[in-house]
Amino acid sequence: MRPIIEMDHVTFGYGTTSVLQDVSLHLHFGQFAALVGPSGAGKTTFLKMVTGLLTPTHGTVAINGHKFGDPLPPRIGYVPQIETVDWNFPVTAGQVVLMGVTNTSGLFPWVSRADRQRADELLDQLGIGGLANRHIRDLSGGQQQRVFLARALISNPDLLVLDEPTAGVDMRTAESVLHTLAHLNQDGLSILMTTHDLNAAAAHIPWVICLNRRVIAQGTPEDVYTEDILNETYQGDFMVIHQNDMLFVQQRPHHHTLRDILPNPTPGETVP
Amino acid sequence: MDILLQPFQFEFFRNGTLAAVLVGGLCGMIGVYIVLRGMSYIGHGLSHAVFGGAVVSFVLGWNFYVGAGLWGFLAAVLINQTVRRTRINADAAIGVITTASFALGVALISRYRRFTRSFDAALFGSVLGVTPEDVLVVAVVAAMVALVVFFRYKQLLFMTFDTQVAQVYGINTAWLDTLFALALAAGLIASMQILGVTLIAAALVIPAITARLLTDRFDRMLLMSIGMGMLTGFFGMYLSYYLDIASGASIVLLQASVFAVVLGITSFQKRATQRLMHTHV
Description:
The structure holds 2 protein chains of 2 kinds. By secondary structure, chain A is of the alpha/beta class. Chain A has helices at 43-50, 93-99, 113-125, 141-153, 171-186, 198-204, 221-224, 227-234, 258-261, and strands at 3-14, 17-28, 32-36, 58-63, 66-67, 76-79, 159-162, 190-194, 207-211, 215-219, 238-243, 246-251. Chain A has a 6-stranded mixed β-sheet, sandwiched between helices. A 4-stranded antiparallel β-sheet of chain A has the order 2-1-4-5, covered by helices on one side. A two-stranded antiparallel ribbon of chain A has the order 11-12. By secondary structure, chain B is mainly alpha-helical. In chain B, helix 3 packs parallel to helix 5. The interface between A and B is medium-sized, with 28 and 27 residues.
C-alpha cells in the first residue's frame, strides 16, 4: 500500500530543547490513526510537520509523495483545536467552510455557485444543513466542530489532520465527532488526529501511534494498549482492562500518605 | 441650502472634504483588518513612526511621501518580523519600534527648531494645507488599497481569522502580511495631512468597531466601516468649518459620537432581548 505520510528520521527542536528525535513513520492510504502521548510529547509539533507549518531540522516529510515546497503541494484538510478559534470573529458557518477553497476559487471576492453548492452539500452531509448563515458563536460545540470539518473537506484533501477534535466538547459530542470521522474513513479518506482520550481512541480508531519525543509503538489498540507501552509513553502507572471485547485504560490511583506529601519532620516533631 | 453649500465656494474646503471622504473610507477599510487582528494599537504606533520618518525625510531633503512611506513600511515590516521571529508580543513590538521612531522625530525637531511650526498640521491635522496634489495622492492610495482588498479579499479574510491555519491551506501569509504592511503605511501617510498623527488611530479603529457592533458578517462589517468612515469624513469637515476646530478632531469626535449612540442602542437591544428570553423561560 502507498504511504500517505512518509516521515523519515525527523528531528526537530526549539532552540536547544529537542522535541522530536529521529521519528520515522509511514501511514498508509485509507488509514485512520490517532496520535497519543502526554502533554509535551511533541504531538502538536508532529502535526505541524505533517501540515508543513514547521520544517524538520533533520529528516524528510512527504505527504502523498509531495514534499512541502514542491510545485504541487500536498492537499491537506486541517481542523485546529476549537479552543483556539476566535468565536467573536464576524463570520458565518458558511463563510468558514468556504475558506477551505480560498486559493482555488478565483480572484474575485464573491463565491462561485459551484463552491456554494459544495459547501451546502457538505454541511447537509455532516448533519448541519441550514446553518450556513448562522454566526459561528451561535452553534453548539458539535456543530462548530463539524463546520471546521466541512472546511477541511471542501477542497477534497488527500489527508485529513485534526488537532484534538474531542477536546473541549462533551462526551456525546465527542462520540458523534468520532463516528463522523469513522464514516469519512470508510469512504476512503486518510485521517490523522491527536487525542488525550485513550478510551475513545480504543473504541473508534483502528490505528494508534504512541509518541513521546519518538515513536514508542504503533499498531491496533489491542497491540499498543499494554501496560508496558503506555507506562513508557506516559511515564506513568497504567492498567489495561479488557471487558466485553472492549479495552479500557486507567491510570492506577496514587495511594498517598501524609508521609509522602509532607516534608520530612524535624527532630522532635511527629507526623500524624 | 445656501448655508450648506457656502463652504464649497472655497477651494481649500472642496479639496479638504474630498480628501477627508477618501481618507475616511480608506481608514475604515484598513481598520477592519487591524481591529479583527487585535492590532488596534498599530495605527497609533505606526502613525508616530511615520512622523519620525517625515522629519527625517525633511532633514535629508527627500520627498515627504517617499521618505515617510518607506519609513512607515519598514517599521510595519519590522513589527511583523519581530512578532513572527521572537517571543515579543505585538503590543510590545509596536511600542518599542514606533515610539523610538517618534522619539527620533522629536529629537530632530528640537535640534532643527526652524520647522517646528509646520509639523503642527502633521500632528493634529489641517485642511488648510490640502492641495489638489494631496487629494490625488489620497485617491491613488485609496484606489490601490481597495484593489488589494478586492483581489485578495478571501486570502485576507482567512489570514485575519486564523493566520496559522491559512498557511496550511496554501496561503502565503508572509507575503500577505508584507502587502498589508505596505497598504497600512501608505494609508497612514495619505491620511496624515487631514487627520494628524495623533488622531489617525481613532479613525482606523472607531468605524470598524462601530460596524462590528452592527453586524456579525465580515463582508457587511467591511462595507459599513468604509461607509461610516466616508460619511463622518464628509460631515466632520462641515463641523470643522462651522465650529472652527481642527479637521482631524471634528472627524474623530463625530465618529466617537456615532460609536457611543450605536453602543447605547445595541446594548439596550441586547438587554431587551435577554429580558424577553428570561420572561419566556
